[in-house]
Amino acid sequence: MVLLKLTVKPWSSSCLLLGLFVFIALLASLSDAEIHYHEFVVQAKPVKRLCRTHNTITVNGQFPGPTLEVRDGDTLIIKAINNARYNVTLHWHGIHQLRNPWADGPEFVTQCPIRPGQSYTYRFTIENQEGTLWWHAHSRWMRATVYGALIIYPRLGVPYPFPMPKKEIPILLGEWWDRNPMDVQKLAIFTGAAPNVSDAYTINGQPGDLYRCSSKETVRFPVESGETILLRVINSAMNQELFFGVANHKLTVVGVDSSYTKPFTTSVIMIGPGQTTNVLLKADQPPGRYYMAAHAYNSANAPFDNTTTTAILEYKSAPCNAKKGKSSTPIFPQLPGFNDTATATAYTAQVKSPTQVEVPTVIDHNLFFTVGLGLNNCSNPNSPRCQGPNGTRFAASINNVSFVFPRTNSLMQAYYQGQPGVFTTDFPPVPPVQFDYTGNVSRGLWQPSKGTKLYKLKYGSTVQIVLQDTSIVTVEDHPMHLHGYEFYVVGMGFGNFNPSRDTAKFNLIDPPKRNTIGTPPGGWVAIRFVANNPGIWLMHCHIDSHLTWGLAMSFLVENGVGKLQTVQPPPLDLPRC
């Protein structure tokens, strides 16, 4: 222990007043924290899109679901009532959930599902987070329609680190199937083939002008000339990275996930499933009508939905078409080509923290994770249950382990209760076999093993993970999401990661802080974080078809010392299995 000898000097009256002011300000900031109570009723409701009405699972009858607006320091108490016919859980994507995995939500990881007719109350506090996050179902493919924005404003009296916008607009980019999404997943699980691609993308639940029976409901955003708008863009699509832009308008990126960034200007953003991006848009063009649009960034050699969703940015002073009495046709933005990896990579490389940050430099756990697809061979190829490539079944894995979710108990409950046989803690820190990850991979390495394996971390340990894409089946941008944490993205590149060459190029000064990051297709990305949140935390690809196939693993972060480093007891109403 180091003892500091302090010399106490008499305070002047001005110092006393300053100290009193600081103390009062601190008390005020603490007392300003609010508790928000919500009831989320998960229920089916008729929703009409693309000329057809479906009995769609919603929250409170809304699609998308309610927007939650809170401030840093606030507490949320949300009672989820399941009136649908499927099991459900809710995940608050990007919330740290410090010492509170019970509120995180992934099915059979931190809780058992809320059965039809039952309820569970999620209780959590926002601690030192600001920005745009979102919430969504985390049970099978329920999140296709069960999702909404979660906006965290700064504490009262704390300004944004950029000019105050005149208005703020959440932009939820989604995917729509012209059938029950749960049936789409069910069929894919049965056949072993890839699921059918979506029939439309949506902006705030509406497909837009380019789809049948949709133009009357196209979302319109009225703006005044000269005003600045903050667009809070969320990719809530199931299986697709997206390019997004607004015709003739520049976008200034000021935040990603729940972190601010160095501002930079672009005409298009690339955003992966699970990610959020805050952009400032200045209404500085001739008054008129301008499309905002999104379409796929498809990095894989695989079928995809090649349609385009639109909404309209509408200047209030825009002239009407005098002859027809109608508004003029909106101007369309130039979006990159579907496979434009160069644009996606250049965009992602510009995202950085606003100032120098404290990145772990001494690493306790140096992990190398291969992430990618695979194929399981069938004893009866091309049978009804083996409709994947060449009569196989699709699979996915990290370090050749295809993650199997338990069915009798959640991982966290089994760990807390000391129940054996639910999981093991032998997840491999490196691939079991080294190979040319992005080259021509031997077919003998295409079939992963299955397991419910966790990787154990001591509280406070420092972690580096290099996420290496593979060319098995196809290279692809995999948006990897880590629950319970944010991490610094210290490097990325193409080809196989070479530690002696690539580590020297890491950005340890101002790397971006994120909760979801994509692996460059046929490349790698390196992340670092401190394991200071005890519990079991899922890490997975946020492309839901890949999650279904097993592209996931979990970290078991052990308790530290004392109450503030220990998982809190589970709530009494935690769903039983």
Mean pLDDT: 94
Envelope shape:
globular
Question: How many whole angstroms does the radius of gyration measure?
Answer: 24 Å
Tell me the number of strands.
34
Looking across the biggest beta sheet, what order are the strands in? 10-9-12-17-14-15
Q: Which class best fits the helix and strand makeup?
A: mainly beta
Helix content: under 10%
Terminal CA distance reads: 47 Å
Largest sheet report: 6 strands, mixed
Which blocks of ≥5 consecutive residues have pLDDT under 50? 1-29
* Helical stretch tally: 6
Beta content comes to 35-45%
Word description of this protein:
Its cofactor is Cu cation. It catalyses: 4 hydroquinone + O2 = 4 benzosemiquinone + 2 H2O. Belongs to the multicopper oxidase family. The structure is a single chain. The protein is mainly beta. The protein has helices at about 15-30, 180-190, 340-350, 410-415, 500, 545-550; strands at about 35-50, 50-60, 70, 75-80, 90-95, 120-125, 130-135, 145-155, 165-175, 200-205, 220-225, 230-235, 240-245, 250-255, 260-265, 270, 275-280, 290-295, 310-315, 320, 325, 365-375, 395-400, 400-405, 450, 455, 460-470, 480, 485-495, 515, 515-520, 525-530, 535-540, 550-555. Strands 10-9-12-17-14-15 form a 6-stranded mixed beta sheet, with no helix packed on it. A hairpin with a 4-residue loop joins strand 20 and strand 21 (about 325).
